[in-house]
């Protein structure tokens, strides 16, 4: 019996149902990153204190002022921000440093965050206080999938983050795109 024909047929079926992969690099300059930060950064952060008390930190006008490829393994950005803490009467401009951080989630997928690394508040009584630990990390381009109409029907396109690096003038995110025909999906 000739096994070559059934093997070729099986290989053709498997290849036609398997997702196709492509590599895509997304480059974010300061203007693009500022647009993303406007939607990613929370307007306020509630911080619990002792004895059931809390304060609210308001973040206003977060803007990228520069890129630092040497800040951490993936680099980082320098920013400007106006911080308000109404309970303490604080309304100060600050210049936070954020590092580009990649983590592997429980599902094995990589995720990219901008993490506040240093946010110094210069207070009259205490001097400089770093409040970076009180601010949440900002997700950069979360995983999502979309459906695209192609000449052969609908296909599902799902990006998977591979790497992220900061350059002198931008952040570069590398994705692999899995493209799967909708009929092959279960």
Question: How is the topology of this model organized?
Answer:
Layout: H1 4-17, E1 20-28, H2 30-40, E2 44-48, E3 54-68, E4 76-85, E5 90-94, E6 97-104, E7 110-118, E8 120-123, E9 127-130, E10 138-139, E11 146-150, E12 153-166, E13 171-181
Antiparallel strand pairs: 1-13, 2-3, 3-4, 4-5, 4-6, 6-7, 7-10, 8-9, 11-12, 12-13
What does this entry look like structurally?
The protein is mainly β. It has a single domain, classed as Bactericidal permeability-increasing protein, domain 1 (Super Roll), CATH 3.15.10. Helix content is 13%, strand content 54%. The chain has two helices and 13 strands. It has helices at residues 4-17, 30-40; strands spanning 20-28, 44-48, 54-68, 76-85, 90-94, 97-104, 110-118, 120-123, 127-130, 138-139, 146-150, 153-166, 171-181. Strands 2, 3, 4, 5, 6, 7 and 10 form a seven-stranded antiparallel sheet that branches. Strand 4 (76-85) and strand 5 form a beta hairpin. The chain is elongated and about 65 Å long.
According to CATH, the fold-level topology is Bactericidal permeability-increasing protein, domain 1
Cα separation of the termini: 35 Å
Structural Rg: 23 Å
Into which percent range does the helicity of residues fall? Answer: 10-25%
Count of DSSP H/I helices: 2
Number of domains as seen in the coordinates: 1
């Amino acid at each position: 019996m000739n096994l070559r024909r059934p093997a070729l047929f099986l290989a053709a079926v498997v290849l036609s149902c398997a997702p196709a992969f492509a590599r895509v690099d997304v480059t974010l300059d300061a203007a693009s990153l500022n647009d993303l930060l406007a939607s990613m950064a929370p307007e306020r952060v509630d911080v619990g204190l002792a004895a059931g008390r809390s304060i609210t930190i308001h973040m206003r006008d977060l803007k990228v002022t520069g890129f630092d490829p040497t800040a951490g393994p993936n680099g980082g950005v320098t920013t400007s921000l106006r911080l308000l803490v109404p309970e303490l009467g604080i309304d100060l401009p600050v210049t936070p440093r954020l590092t580009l951080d990649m983590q592997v989630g429980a599902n094995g997928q990589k995720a990219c965050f901008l993490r506040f690394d240093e946010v110094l508040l210069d207070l009259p009584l205490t001097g400089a206080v770093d409040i970076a630990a009180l601010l949440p990390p900002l997700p950069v381009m979360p995983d999502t999938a979309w459906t695209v109409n192609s000449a052969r029907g609908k296909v599902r396109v799902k990006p998977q983050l591979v790497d992220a690096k900061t350059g002198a003038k931008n952040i570069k995110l590398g994705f692999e795109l899995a493209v799967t025909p909708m009929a092959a999906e279960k």
